[in-house]
From TrEMBL, chain A:
InterPro entries: Acyl-CoA_DH_CS, Acyl-CoA_Oxase/DH_mid-dom, Acyl-CoA_Oxase/DH_mid-dom_sf, AcylCo_DH-like_C, AcylCo_DH/oxidase_C, AcylCoA_DH/ox_N, AcylCoA_DH/ox_N_sf, AcylCoA_DH/oxidase_NM_dom_sf. This is Isobutyryl-CoA dehydrogenase, mitochondrial. Residues 158-251 form the Acyl-CoA oxidase/dehydrogenase middle domain. The keyword Oxidoreductase applies. Its cofactor is FAD. SUPFAM superfamilies: Acyl-CoA dehydrogenase C-terminal domain-like (SSF47203), Acyl-CoA dehydrogenase NM domain-like (SSF56645). It catalyses: (2S)-2-methylbutanoyl-CoA + oxidized [electron-transfer flavoprotein] + H(+) = (2E)-2-methylbut-2-enoyl-CoA + reduced [electron-transfer flavoprotein]; propanoyl-CoA + oxidized [electron-transfer flavoprotein] + H(+) = acryloyl-CoA + reduced [electron-transfer flavoprotein]. Pathway: Amino-acid degradation; L-valine degradation. Belongs to the acyl-CoA dehydrogenase family. The keyword Phosphoprotein does not apply. The lineage of its organism: Eukaryota, Fungi, Fungi incertae sedis, Mucoromycota, Mortierellomycotina.
TrEMBL record, chain B:
SUPFAM superfamilies: Adenine nucleotide alpha hydrolases-like. Residues 26-219 form the Electron transfer flavoprotein alpha/beta-subunit N-terminal domain. GO terms for molecular function: electron transfer activity. Keywords: Electron transport, Mitochondrion, Transport. This is Probable electron transfer flavoprotein subunit beta. It comes from Mortierella hygrophila. Gene3D superfamilies: HUPs. InterPro entries: ET-Flavoprotein_bsu_CS, ETF_a/b_N, ETF_b, ETF_beta_N, Rossmann-like_a/b/a_fold. The keyword Transport applies. It is found in: Mitochondrion matrix. Binds 1 AMP per subunit. Binds 1 FAD per dimer. Its cofactor is AMP; FAD.
Length: 415, 257
């Protein structure tokens, strides 16, 4: 008895320290696990991954269910993460970015989302906006907006979708008309993540004729005349971030807030989305990893028919299938991320296929984990339901998975 | 103005969260393919050195250079990189694939101290792998320096430090002149995360390497481990009928009353 207590005490007090509040299951012998997410990474990437995972374990995981339940946007925790560099992962360093690559970023988002998918997904959208301004903005725009975005003193939103233009984004109808020193924007954007809580909106609007070539990209600040927000949407998941309509009524935007040239907006939006798709796929990987870890834990402990669930061959085969599709998803996402780093000419279709495969398969892994939990998986005391609800929308946004098939099939059929 | 050099000892150990297992031979804990990280008490030590450096810079009363040292296999360099990413200035790796017992480490550290001439050496009160809790004390003995162990608070004075120590039944405050040895307890501070840019920059900070032979230290083990065994498996719980039944079981089965 006494010896058991000493043993427990030996490690228990360390829980006070920073590295040590992990609520997740104990770490298995790493290299022996086929779902170890560090396999194949460089030493540098492993370090980034370990920092992100520790941050997720300490700052996200203990709060995930509460944020979901209360629909709470954890601005302070995001800013704490930004101090470590999460606010501008692939933004240049002169404006406070971390200057990392897209594969590094994917590894980080995967690790962070094991603690909270919804919060990590918002960070990914913020990073996409920050990168768009960094890559296509003028030097003045970079210096004016990016330091406050990389520190997450300000939050950013990406505004493409409209009530009448979802999958057919190039058909958007928000207009921007140049009048002297301003563009005047009219129209509304639907489903904007961070809408209302963000300070900076990267908005696509039509300055020219119909189709993609008539679209331009603008930086619009909260507080610009004529900008307002719709009601907070009540959602199945992604509850730690607000989603609202963004409404422009004669909204005045100074001409110097045009990003790139007139007519370049759709191409900028799509470049952002290639990376966005890899990012959102990475968030699905984290959801699937955490769900599979939870299932592995549960089937060893839960007994039915006088034996642990892990004794049944159905359970064993199911786990093997889950691990296999997690691994295939991860490999596709990481290949697409590496192609973004190389600026590969076929990157769009690889990003689309990776997003399609990873978000569908990882959602299925969350559902399989829920199934292995039996009735308990359906209860909100367990975490699996949150991973399932949060990752469901990944099959819809940043282009639905049907649109991913469209992108892939076009690339296949084009001579 | 005080311009300090602080030496911080950091050890690479099996990560606190890993389920440890005894190896097949029953001679040691299994370390192959197991996640390792910096001994948590050494993270606290590194953090303390950084806080001292930051405080000196903020009050413009001096500067501090933080040198981290680790004795052990090549992989210990990962631990040193972590300390550099947190904010240490440079690192020293004393390479040894041999087993290093506390006395050997204390002697290696003494050799490093003689080279570096630090004003303070910070160590963890213990490493969470072998829980020896001796290296700091032995180093103080070898150097004939004052020591303040199990620190929960440190205040730097003029060529001295005042340390609050956690002792049985309370806290004790001691003041020692510098140079001195400090060992950290759990409540001293909460170590910071290394930021992503600092992780990348840490690659460029200097890391010097020595062999045991370079330092001319005899590291021969003085203790022999006879065997390592796992603790007995925990038995399932039992529901008792009454308080009397409970007391009876505590007395006669568990024999704890
Ligand atoms: C929680 C949440 C957050 C969001 N955040 C943002 C954001 O921050 N910024 C932003 O701009 N947008 C955002 N969106 C919008 C998202 O990108 C769109 O919902 C998505 O592009 C789909 O558009 P839609 O909802 O209008 O669906 P629709 O386009 O109406 O699609 C309905 C269905 O029809 C299918 N379909 C449509 N066209 C075709 C076709 N040609 N062939 C085959 N099938 C087709 C679709 O695949 C889908 O299954 C968000 C959405 C949600 C739910
Ligand atoms: C919302 C809700 C309402 C409910 N309402 C009622 C109610 O009104 N009345 C009532 O009596 N019950 C009710 N239930 C309980 C429900 O019937 C059980 O949850 C269900 O039978 C599964 O049992 P379990 O949750 O203990 O899961 P477990 O039996 O622990 O199963 C966990 C997993 O292991 C699998 N498994 C178990 N045994 C085997 C095996 N031999 N081979 C292969 N796989 C195996 C299961 O298929 C499952 O995937 C309710 C449950 C929920 C969630």
């Amino acid at each position: 008895m006494a010896s058991l207590l000493t043993l427990a005490a030996r490690r228990a007090p360390l829980r006070l320290g920073r590295a040590v509040t992990s609520v997740s299951s104990q770490i298995r012998n790493i290299s022996s696990s086929p779902i170890d997410p560090s396999v194949g990474l460089t030493d540098d990437q492993k370090e980034l991954q370990s920092l992100a995972r520790t941050f997720a374990d300490n700052e996200f995981a203990p709060k995930m269910q509460e944020w979901d339940e209360k629909q709470y946007f954890p601005a302070d925790v995001l800013r704490k993460g930004a101090e470590l560099g999460f606010g501008g992962l692939y933004t240049r360093e002169d404006v406070g970015g971390s200057g990392l690559g897209r594969l590094d970023t994917s590894v980080i988002f995967e690790a962070l989302s094991t603690g909270c998918v919804s919060t990590t997904a918002y960070i990914s959208i913020h990073n996409m906006c920050t990168w768009m301004i960094d890559s296509y903005g003028s030097e003045e725009q970079r210096q004016k907006y990016l330091p406050k975005l990389t520190s997450m003193e300000h939050f950013a939103s990406y505004c493409l979708t409209e009530p009448g233009a979802g999958s057919d984004a190039a058909g958007l109808s928000t207009t921007a008309v140049k009048k002297g020193s301003h563009y005047v924007l009219n129209g509304s954007k639907a489903f904007i993540s961070g809408g209302g809580s963000s300070d900076v909106y990267v908005i696509m609007a039509r300055t020219g004729g119909p189709g993609p070539k008539g679209i331009s990209c603008f930086i619009v600040e909260k507080g610009f005349k004529g900008l307002s927000f719709g009601k907070k949407e009540d959602k199945l998941g992604w509850n730690s971030q607000e989603t609202r309509a963004v409404i422009m009524e004669d909204c005045e935007v100074p001409v110097e807030n045009l990003v790139g040239a007139e007519g370049q907006g759709f191409s900028i939006a799509m470049k952002g989305l290639n990376g966005g798709r890899v990012n959102i796929g990475s968030c699905s990987l984290g959801a699937a990893q955490a769900s599979l870890d939870a299932a592995l834990e549960h089937v060893k402990v839960r007994k039915q028919f006088n034996q642990p669930l892990s004794n049944f061959q159905n359970t064993q085969f199911k786990l093997a299938d889950m691990a296999t599709s997690l691994l295939s998803s991860r490999l596709m996402i990481r290949q697409a991320a590496a192609m973004l780093d190389q600026d590969h000419p076929s990157v769009a279709s690889f990003c689309a296929m990776a997003k399609l495969h990873a978000t569908d398969e990882c959602f299925q892994i969350c559902d399989d984990s829920l199934q292995l939990h039996g009735g308990y998986g359906y209860l909100k005391d367990y975490k699996v339901n949150v991973y399932l609800r949060d990752s469901r929308v990944h099959r819809i946004l940043e282009g639905t998975n049907e649109i991913m098939r469209l992108v892939a099939s076009r690339a296949l059929l084009t001579e | 103005m005080s311009n300090l050099r602080i030496l911080v000892a950091t050890k690479r150990v099996i990560d606190y969260a890993v389920k440890i297992r005894v190896n097949a031979a029953g001679s040691a804990v299994e370390t192959a393919n197991v996640k390792h990280s910096m001994n948590p008490f050494d993270e606290i030590g590194t953090e303390q050195a950084i806080q001292i450096k930051e405080a000196l810079a903020k009050s413009k009363t001096g500067t501090a250079e933080i040198v981290v040292v680790s004795c052990g296999p090549v992989k210990s360099q990962e631990t040193l990189r972590t300390a550099l990413a947190m904010g240490a200035d440079r690192a020293i790796h004393v390479d040894s694939e041999e087993e290093l017992q506390p006395l050997a480490v204390a002697k290696l550290l003494r050799a490093v101290v003689e080279k570096e001439k630090p004003d303070m050496v910070i160590l963890g009160k213990q490493a969470i792998d072998d829980d020896s809790n001796q290296t700091g004390q032995m180093l103080a003995g070898l150097l004939n320096w004052p020591q303040a162990t199990f620190a929960s608070k440190v205040e730097l004075g003029d060529k001295s430090m005042t340390v609050t120590r956690e002792v049985d039944g309370g806290v004790e405050t001691v003041k020692t002149p510098l140079p001195a040895i400090l060992t950290t307890d759990l409540r001293l501070n909460v170590p910071r995360y290394a930021s992503l840019p600092n992780i990348m920059k840490a690659k460029k900070k200097p890391l010097a390497k020595f062999t045991v032979a370079d330092l001319g230290v005899d590291i021969k083990p003085r203790l022999q481990t006879l065997k390592i065994v796992e603790p007995a498996k925990r038995q399932g719980g039992k529901i008792v009928e009454s308080v009397d039944d409970l007391v009876d079981k505590l007395k006669n089965e568990a024999k704890v009353l």
